[in-house]
Amino acid sequence: MTTLALIMMKPADWEKNRQVFLQKLLLTAHIRSAITPNDRTKITSKAIKPFATYKTALIFFGLVNAFFVYMLKSRIDSNSSTPYNQQLGQFLRANDAFIMDTCTKILKHFEQDLLPSQTYENLFQAFDFSQFNEQWIQELLNTLP
Hints:
It is a single chain. By secondary structure, the protein is mostly helical. The protein contains 7 helices and no strands. The protein has helices at residues 2-8, 11-33, 51-72, 84-94, 96-114, 120-126, 134-141. α2 packs antiparallel against α3 (51-72) and α3 (51-72) packs antiparallel against α5.
C-alpha cells in the first residue's frame, strides 16, 4: 500500500496522510514480532520492542517519503486539473536528467540519514517528524486490541 502511494497519491495528499502510513507500517512490524507461532490471532505484548524490530519499516517509510519530498513535491502540481497519473507519466517521460540527479540525492539521504540511524529520534528527524518519539509509538501500540 505504501509503495502504491507513489503512483496513486499527489505529493500534497501524501503530506496530509503520511503519518497514517507510518502508523500502519509500525503496527505491522509490531504485530509480526508479537504474535505467537501457534496462535496468529493473539498479540503477546503491546510493549514497545527494541528499535531493530521497527527499523526496517521505518527505513522503508523514509525511502518512500524521500521520493515524495525530493522528486515529486516540486514537480507535480497538486492544483492542476490534469489527473495525477497523467502528470506523473509526463514528468517521468520528460525529466530524465532531473530524475537521475534526484535519485542520487535520495540514495545519499538513504545512506547518510536513514541507514546509520540507531534511534527513533534520528529517523523521525530525518522524516521531519521531530515531534514523534518512543512515547508516541507506545501510545500507538496501546490502540491495538
